[in-house]
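Open question from group meeting: does this chain pack into something compact, or does most of it stay loose? Before anyone orders reagents, we agreed to write out a predicted structure and look at it together. Recording both the input and the output here so the notebook holds the full record.
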Amino acid sequence: MIESHKLKERDRYLNKLIGFQDTEPVKIITGIRRCGKSSLLKLMVAHLIKTGIQPEQIVEMNFESNDFRKMTSDAVYAYVKKHVIAGKRMYLFFDEIQRIDAWEDAINALRVDLDCDIYVTGSNAYLLSSEYSTYLSGRCVEIKMLPLSFSEFLYFHDFEVREIRSALGGVHKRVFDKKGEHYELREAFEAFMRFGGMPGIVDVGLDQERALLLLDGIYSTVVVRDILEREKRRGQKRITDPILLRKIIMFLADNIGSNVSIASIGNTLVNEGLLEDGKRKSAPSAHTVQAYVNALLESYFFYEIKRFDIKGKEYLRTLGKYYIVDIALGNYLLGFRNRDSGHALENVVYFELLRRGYDVAIGKIDNMEVDFIATIADERKYIQVTESMNSEDIRKRELVPLQRIRDNYEKIVLSLEPGLDSSYEGIKSENLIEWLLAD
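Structure tokens returned:
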């Protein structure tokens, strides 16, 4: 097991945990497999010990381990009780607890019976389902964890961004590695777009073959453990066709950032010959496709984003979009080929907005679309994402929807090539990579 002193910090998440330390709510860390939840628990344990908590006051249980994975909820309760130090507050860490049937019974009993502070991780949104909330309604706080941001990617891979002054007095940024070799910032970003933000990539290095093996393991674990096995444990029989599941995953990965309706997915798969496996003669029902898509959303493999009518000020039921939690998983599924780079950039911006705490929707204005409406408290931003702003046609396409919006909230176009103008009639034009680094 990796020692906590070797772990890279994830301050964004650790500070949230520290902020809730010794408060009543159960701290629930959710996110896709292998995005760093277990390491975050280790970082929190290290923080506790550093601040004077004795190791004997800390109980750690990882339910992926053979030591614990076959336990019942009663056995979990008994194990913790056996380790309680009389007169001391206990700190309880439960990793991937959704693998234990009726785990919520044990957590609720421990919360009621002991003087304790509880931290839980899970790789499926079923953790926070309605059945669960009846036990801990109002007594839990969710911390949503994502793969590495671009800034974290640089930090984890020991890259450092430095400002370099040119002979003519200008300043630009370069990326330096541990050996002192330097690269253009765009090169580092292209590496991020290729290898993604799964922390495990750091251990295998920026090597395509080894990265693909790691991503294959993540994919298999999500599909087998968090979707197919979980359905069996729940006694459900909705997700029974691994072939159909993979085809839907492939379809969504190939259509990130595109308007998609559930009803159209099955028909498209049949029309494009993606379901010619000798068994299926017709498209799966919309109900079946919805169940499979819901399972992918619950496992945090894909995220759905709704459309918002800016003039009508209401959410629309039709034609949402899906983004994949880590762009490298899309590369793994579809191959490292040139796809729609604009949608790939949208994917990165969408998750960065989520990391920064925004609620995000697609904007509809008349018959046009704004890539993102990002809202937090009373703040709102309208954001367009494009590869370049150098062409007049592209500038018009990206700017017109923003110009149609008649309020005074911030309007931004993010691109890899912003051109010379920093604003167009009050609409900011910003370098996407610089925006990511400004976190």
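Observations to bring back to the group:
The first strand starts at residue 26 and ends at 30.
The radius of gyration is 23 Å.
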